[in-house]
Amino acid sequence: MRMNQQQRLNRVLELISERGNVSIADVSETLAVSTATARRDLNTLADQRLVTRTHGGASALGSGYELPLQYKIARQADAKLAIARAVEALIDPGSTVGMNGGTTVTEVARALGRSERMRSIAGEPGVTIVTNALNIAFESSVRENIKIVVTGGVPRRQSYELIGPLVSASLRDFSLDVAVLGVDGLTAEFGATTLHEGEADASRHIAAVARRVVVAADQTKIGRSTFARIGSLETVDVLVTDAPLPARVAAQFDKASVDVVVAPPVR
User: Fold this and answer.
1) Integer CA distances (angstroms), 112 to 127, 128, 181, 182, 242, in order
2) Is 123 exposed, middle or buried (0-12, 13-18, 19+ CB in 10 A)?
């Protein structure tokens, strides 16, 4: 099926994220489009300051290149939906839930908003979400069964997450039942990691005021470590993912007392 421009731009960004750079010929061959179309797409992304245009192609903006949130949404979509449903099932009605940003956690917030178990009773919300993610706060604010509390902080354009010292100041007097965290990597050696140090710090503070920490991560994040550490594997209580872990990794997670929940596939 022929891709529209937005789908092509998504795919080009994924290629650059994976490889660091691409040529016009790479884009043309991979997407089965003309070199003129490939050139226009690279120029469009460069105009949006998402890539650096080079002679004959384009490259990532830096070694820690991160896809903007709006371009991540379609990736691993079924896995994210399955994980979100499994996380929702772990949360008791009436709970206070801390959330950082990212597409998987956004799907968890949506699952809570749709949940029949989380209905408002006698005017009380079915669940309270405390988040530093502006997109989650915006979407969830229209749900009658959800009470939204937004931390302070300065927004990051890449992820819509608030970061900085105001995040910890906002959370200082809170006590959360559970923290649901999205990550960019999770390993036994380095624990939960993300690409940006400010987001890692904010996630760490959300986890610190929660009685239970749930990491929601698809299989592409397991066994991968990225730049900024959120916390060791021992700080994680539950991992919800979309596929069984390899035996060696499963043994490491078991040793760290991490309960692993494999989400049933979406049907």
Assistant:
1) 8, 10, 15, 16, 19
2) exposed
pTM above 0.85, yes or no: no
Query: DSSP letter at 263?
Result: P
DSSP conformational letter for 177: S
3-state secondary structure 102-143: CHHHHHHHHHHHHCCCCCCECCECCEEEEECEHHHHHHHCCC
Q: Cα angle at 210 between 183 and 219, to 5 degrees?
A: 25
**Residue 213: what residue type?**
V
Domain ranges in the chain are: 5-65, 77-262
The answer to whether the 5-65 and 77-262 domains have the same CATH topology is: no
Question: What are the phi and psi torsion angles at 166 (to 5°)?
Answer: -65, -20
Cβ(221)–Cβ(200) below 8 Å: no
Encode pLDDT of 31-61 as tens digits. Answer: 999 999 999 999 998 887 778 899 999 988 7
- One-letter amino acid at 244 equals P
CATH architecture of the region 5-65: Orthogonal Bundle (1.10)
CATH architecture for segment(s) 77-262: 3-Layer(aba) Sandwich (3.40)
